[in-house]
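User: These chains co-purify. Model them together.
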Amino acid sequence: GAGVSQTPSNKVTEKGKYVELRCDPISGHTALYWYRQSLGQGPEFLIYFQGTGAADDSGLPNDRFFAVRPEGSVSTLKIQRTERGDSAVYLCASSTGLEGDTQYFGPGTRLTVL
Amino acid sequence: AQTVTQSQPEMSVQEAETVTLSCTYDTSENNYYLFWYKQPPSRQMILVIRQEAYKQQNATENRFSVNFQKAAKSFSLKISDSQLGDTAMYFCAFMSTFQKLVFGQGTRLTINP
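Assistant: Joint model of the two components:
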């Protein structure tokens, strides 16, 4: 079946602008995760959804970052008033939600803030 | 908080050789899961192998195997008969019962022809 998809693949924006990044998980996966990967680093956890609700948003760096998953499938990561330090690859993953189950990743969105 | 350490930023071997990537982690939990992911230049993280901490038997997947030492909190990845397509960044990751993955800094592996 289809894997995790993310759009856009690349996004270039100007400092102060608002951006939305979309993630479409594997069909039937109830758990969805967002990670941020800076250049040369491992991914860092941002937020985890179980169904429609955020089960853990402890990784969101500040209140400029917000994510939703209104119907328990597609998720959107929203960043307000972007800063140059937000430039990174944003990765989305999904899983069955069972404890310890493998997370399957999408190809990521590379965000560049000029 | 859990931490994952990969002490080898880069490694390079010849095709067909065996290579071992190191990973150590720190946790006070007894039940957890460990993963190795591969990230080629395409950016997509691909699962290589998964280990459940309560299982003593080391996981294997074809040419990939792990050496899991729970007491030492060590989880190394061995790649046998390495191939050019194995060239990638490799990340070790820890997952507790809280589901989020904690990643190491990665090891850049190059397989030379």
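The mean pLDDT of chain A is 95.
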